[in-house]
Amino acid sequence: MDNLLSAMKAAAEPTRLRLLVLCAHADLTVSDLVHILGQSQPRLSRHLKLLTDAGLLDRNREGSWVYFRLAHEGSSAALAQTLVDALPENDPTVLRDLARLEALMSDRAQRAEDYFRKVAEQWDELRSFYVHDDEVEKQLSALIGEEKVSDLLDIGTGTGRILEILADKVEHAVGIDMSPDMLLLARSKLERARLRNCVVRKGDMHHLPLGESSFDAITIHQVLHYAERPAAAIQEAARVLRPGGRLFIVDFQAHGLDMLRSEHEHRWLGFEEDKMADWLKAAGLKPEGCRRLKGDPLTICIWTARQPQLRDRSRAA
Known about the structure:
alpha/beta, two-stranded antiparallel sheet, elongated
């Protein structure tokens, strides 16, 4: 009872309620919240500490940055979600805050797209600057080849490199990307290689222009560390994955190289294996392991997960 009362007291202030709502929608830094709410950093830091100490917010450090998010676990997590749900959707203050949040996130996405456009032609070389891709591609190709794949989806296909190396292992492949420059380059490369079973299309990883249960295998190669909402991207990938189909995520293991964020627009400094497993399970997928490929200074992980068969999902439900 004492913990519940303390949590309710911590939330019983207008700014702190607004913070809970914002942090329910995205992982945000103090600077983000200063921009959205227009209040001083010391003031917001005090509010955030009270909410974190009460277990209503999670605090996660990545390098020199700290992100706040609505609590997912713990005795106060349910209360945090209840308070957010209880606020009227048409409250003018909440609507204004969420509009500013959306503008902030759109600005981030635009910066990332501008970056992609700037480096499109050197993208493959840049991506392998820290970790050599040869071994990663070899391992991914071997994993894909373990089972027959009729339809492959590559999310965030970039220059189409993954389509190139997997084309002979699948009957049909689709690459999705938001950048017109990347898609132009990918189409050119696929045409030169005469890979007629591969196509690329424009689309957002969070809102794939594809039907449910459309693919036997999905790859997300070095993309999630740019995503604003990695868990949502995984959920969307699971939606278009057929029963028994496999998802392959290739990305950095958690690290502390801040310069990748400041110089190369990385949104996330890699991912903890436990966190990735949680996201996969939350999407209804069954994690099947992680292969680690150590580099210098970064380590690449290849996470594999499977969409349960319909009978398995029914039994679980």
